[in-house]
Structure formats: structure tokens, C-alpha cells
Amino acid sequence: MSVGTVLIVGAGITGVCTAEWLRRDGWDVTLIDPVEPGSEDQTSYGNAGLLSRTSVMPVATESMVRKAPSMVLDPDSPLFLRWSYLPRLLPWLIPFVRNAKPERVRDISIGIATMTSDTNEQHLALVRGTDAQNFICSGEFVSLFPQRENYESDVFGAEIRGKYGLYPEKIDRAELLERDPNIGPHYNFATVFKDICWLSSPGGYVRAIFSHFKSNGGGYRQSRAMSITPGAAPSVVLEGGETLSADKVVLSAGAWSGKIARAFGVGMNIEAERGYHIAIRDPHFTAPQPYLVSDAKIIMTPMDGFLRAAGVAEFGGLDAPPSSRPIEVIKKGVRKVYPDLKFDVTENWMGRRPTTPDSLPVIGEDPSAPNILHAYGGQHIGLTIGPKVGRIIADLAGRRRPNIDLSIYRPNRF
Length: 414
Ligand SMILES: Cc1cc2nc3c(=O)[nH]c(=O)nc-3n(C[C@H](O)[C@H](O)[C@H](O)COP(=O)(O)OP(=O)(O)OC[C@H]3O[C@@H](n4cnc5c(N)ncnc54)[C@H](O)[C@@H]3O)c2cc1C
Description:
- This protein has 13 helices and 19 strands.
- The chain is an alpha/beta fold.
- It folds into two domains: about 5-45 and about 205-270 and about 360-410, FAD/NAD(P)-binding domain (3-Layer(bba) Sandwich), CATH 3.50.50.60; about 60-100 and about 135-200 and about 270-355, D-Amino Acid Oxidase, Chain A, domain 2.
- Strands 3, 4, 5, 6, 7, 13, 14, 15, 16 and 17 form a ten-stranded mixed sheet that branches. Strands 8-2-1-12-19-18 form a six-stranded mixed sheet, with helices on both faces.
- A hairpin with a 5-residue loop joins strand 9 and strand 10 (about 235-240).
- Flavin-adenine dinucleotide binds near residues 9, 42, 44 and 260.
């Protein structure tokens, strides 16, 4: 017997994980999304596929903020700004810069580590025994640096990672070449973390969780939610005018969530931090495991039948069309790592990371409408934390107290 009804607005990784946890708890769940889960219109389709248990640093740090002005002026750097968008970015940018202070970074890292540290276990808890499990690969995660000094100079980053026991193995170029003889001469130092998982197809993974959910009785409406109305039985108006209501509504519409939340009254501050990828089909050689290319700010991940290079950050709003320069910068990054890789068959893609000014997700009951639950803001780690966010939301809906302090993620903190 159903314990109640839930509508979920947005069916990317966050929405499908939340839907599946709620379904297992006995809720009658309907996902609402104009695009099929797993399709390329979702940010969850085109990410680097890393389940990043080692992510603890926020996007904003003092060194990043210091470098940003020169980076946006350099067309070869991985940071892009559409200048006409700058006035609209300021309400997000000002608190973002404030959050770069070391004491804020230390606090924020606690909120990030809480969400990322058990990602391998959280994903397996959700997908073990389903087709989605077949997409999980495991091995090492290697970060490439031009020189050892580039790594050693980040004393603050090492301090924060050390706080969480994240001490990578350090290897020089000779060892790097033993592992991967194709690495170009630009990279002379690397760090290695073991016991890391990644996905052979992030879109396929979302699709598989969604199929499992549907084949076990979960519902799906392929439509856009036009508005959410709070209340004892909150409702969602669909494109076309139909109104659905339920005991609970979960908002998990990624970078689009801010617009929807603001319309029913929460002062949300979230930006579309646009990122890009290229996919190189059937490369004549590929990466043995995911690489973080530290200077190019891309991750290169071996996936099913292709090598994907994903990353960069562009600020230009939700709706602007994709730019061409970020794709060129990513290609350049790949050529530096693999000068001998011949590629011309590529897929170019752009997606929108849902990024808050404090790099923390938004998770929790709406302060003035507790039957509405917020679940978004995964920024660079939205894939990593999807199952855990879903589990927390299912706990909150079922009136179970999650065993973590959620105040740092509260929706009314902006
Ligand atoms: C280049 C790049 C690389 C990345 N690499 C990684 C990585 O390696 N590891 C990692 O953990 N994270 C990574 N990320 C981040 C991660 O992909 C995102 O944080 C995550 O996909 C966000 O998931 P989501 O479900 O919140 O949003 P989305 O996947 O964007 O889904 C939101 C859904 O909401 C729907 N929606 C919007 N408006 C409405 C509406 N009005 N009604 C109904 N539905 C609506 C949309 O159609 C969409 O399907 C990367 C991101 C990028 C761009």
C-alpha cells in the first residue's frame, strides 16, 4: 500500500535517484520532465562520469579568485564569461567571491566532504542488482601536473584534503610513462588516488535507474512544470494547463531550479555554470583510467566506445546558445595530454552545472512550505552526490531524521 504521493520536478541524476529511493519507501512517485531521463539535454548526460569521493574543495578559493580576471581575458584559458551577462551575474558573483576566504572554504569543505566521501557505497546501495550497476567502473584517478611545483604550491588545498585523510600517491614522469606511455612531454608529475569509481556512460546510467524505477511501478509525465503552488497538498501546473497535486513535491530541476523556486517565494541564488565535453569515438588508444588535467581544467574519462574530455566553466546564463571557443580549449588540452592521438570524429556538448555561490547543494524542506522539498545545486559533483541527496530527501519525506547536520544545505540560506 502506498504511503502517499510525490511529484518530482526534474529527472536528471538527482531526480531519478530521489524517485527510486522514495519508491522503495512505498511512495507513489511521478517524475515530471520535458526530456527523457538520460537524454543529452540533461547535465547528467554529459559530465565526466566521475564518482568523486576525493572532492572536498569548493569552486571558489582565494587563488582561483585571484587568477580569474586574467583567465577570462585569455581565450585559451578554461574560464569564460559572456561580458553582456556580467551585470546579471553580480548578485551571484559577489557572495561567491566572499566565500573564497580561507575560513569559509574550511567550513564549506565539511559540507562537501559529508556528501562525497561515501559516494561509492551510496551509488552501490541504490543500483546494486539493477542494470545500472553495469555502468560502474573502478580503479585509480590520476591528476596530471606539468611540474611537481604546480602540485606542491597548493599548500592550502593539501591542508584541506589532509583533514579528510586524502593523501594521494605521488609519481614522477618515469612512473607515469610506465602506466601510460602515450602521455605527452608537458606532464612531468602526477598524483594517484585509488578506489575511485566512474561511469562508462553517465546518460546510460540515468536511463537504467529510470527504467528500473518505471518497471517497478514508478510514474513519468513527459512535460514541463510551469509552476509549483505550496499548500497542504502542493500542486504542479504542467505545460498545457493540467494541474497535478500530491502529498509532497520535490524540486530537482538542476540549474533551472532557481527560477522555479523563486516563483513560489524562496530567495534562491543559483547559476548555470556551463561546461562542455568532446567525445572521441573509437580512439586508437585511450586513457587507462580518468585523468584530471590540472592546468586545462578538464577530466578525460575512458567510456564505453569513446574517450570523453569534459570541463571548463562558462558564465553566460541558462539560455544562451553554446559557444565554440570552450570546445577548442578542450581539444587543445587533449592534444597536450595525448599529442599522438588522432581524432576528428567527436561529439560536442554543452551542459549547465547548478552552482550556488557557496558550492554547496540545496537540500531540505522549504522553510515556509514543508511539503515542498529542495534537491539541487550539485555543481561539479552532482553525479557523485545524486544517490545520497535522494536518500536524504526520502528520509525527510518519511519523517526520518538523517544522521547528518543538514543546516549547511538549508534552502533559505541565501
Ligand atoms: C562538463 C561537466 C562535467 C561534469 N563532471 C562531473 C563529474 O565527473 N562528476 C560529478 O559528480 N559531477 C560532474 N558534473 C556535474 C553534474 O553533471 C551535475 O551537477 C548534475 O548532472 C546535475 O544533475 P541534476 O539532476 O541536478 O540536473 P540535470 O541533469 O540538468 O537535470 C535537471 C532536469 O530538470 C529538468 N527541468 C528543467 N526545468 C524543468 C521544468 N520546468 N519542469 C520539469 N523538469 C524541468 C531538465 O529538463 C533536466 O532534465 C559535471 C558537469 C559538467 C557540465
